[in-house]
Amino acid sequence: MKEQLLLIYNPSSGRQTMTEKLGYVVESLGERWDVTVKPTLYEGHAEQVAAEAATQFDMVVAAGGDGTIHEVVNGLMNSRQRPVLGILPAGTANDIARSLSIPSDLMEACDFLKVSHPVQIELGKCASRYFVNFLGFGLISLVSNSVKQATKSRLGPLTYFLKSLQSLHNQSEFLVQIQTEEKLIETTCVMGYVASGRSLAGFELFPETGFGDDSFEVILIHDVTIANLLDAAASILRKAPIENRAVTRFRATSLNIRCTPLQFIDMDGEKGMQTPVDIRFIPESLSVVGNLT
């Protein structure tokens, strides 16, 4: 008897390739599982479906972008009995899938699901919400809020880089105070980033970071200029760590973040919260098919 798999897919993600290849995906996954398909109909729907289905399936597969995966994870975390999470990357950046070494091609990702084993990954928790890849504040939230789906579908990950250039004049430095389990940091910056994964906006920014670590990578960017962006781009192309005098990096498992003025928060694409926030690192929170190396 086959195990039960629920496929939650976002028909609006990325370039809508999931909708075009849905039949092939279901046929491929059907070689191993009994597949039930649920398309998302509105924002928050993936979370609702995942929460309701958590106890009924052996695996729940999120097919879409990082926002879809974020919703599914939050739905699963509302259940004490959690199935294995599978991921089919069908969004614009696909940062979570990239950090788990999941193939970017949909059909190759299906094959990967069928032969790979689950691993335990950490999550971040902010208030009652969980995040998988990152939590950001400042410029990163401004950029995310201003990116339109049609532009993402047309330009892909390049959208975020171009929008960052356009948004430079709209983001001023702000005061930030961060209390970790070990120290208090007080400084000014234009953007902050709390990372679990190694990829952001479709680029592998932090090759030495990734799921399976014992703490967050925290990055504060004090001054975003064209020169700094080009320097960072050069590091990305070399797959080398980003080292710049305008960047402060440290690791932590617990953070209280306060900003003056208040800053909006972006968690894997989820928007709406503002500082101050408390963030906790929760190790081995979820079983997901992927590789940690």
Shape, please? elongated
Query: What is the H/E order?
Result: EHHEHEHEHHEEEHHHEEEEEEHEEEEE
| Secondary structural class | alpha+beta
What CATH calls the topology of the largest domain is Tumour Suppressor Smad4
What is the count of β-strands?
18
Rg calc: 19 Å
- End-to-end C-alpha gap: 33 Å
Please identify the top-level CATH class of the largest domain: Mainly Beta
Structure described in brief:
This protein has 293 residues and is α+β, with helices and mostly antiparallel strands. It is built from ten helices and 18 strands. The relative contact order is 0.17.
What would your notes on this structure say?
- It is a single chain.
- By secondary structure, the protein is an alpha+beta fold.
- The chain has 2 domains: 114 residues, Probable inorganic polyphosphate/atp-NAD kinase, domain 1 (Rossmann fold, 3-Layer(aba) Sandwich); 155 residues, Sandwich (Tumour Suppressor Smad4), CATH 2.60.200.40.
- The chain has 10 helices and 18 strands.
- The chain has a 6-stranded antiparallel beta sheet, covered by helices on one side.
- Strand 16 and strand 17 form a beta hairpin.
- It is elongated and about 60 Å long.
- It starts with a strand and ends with a strand.
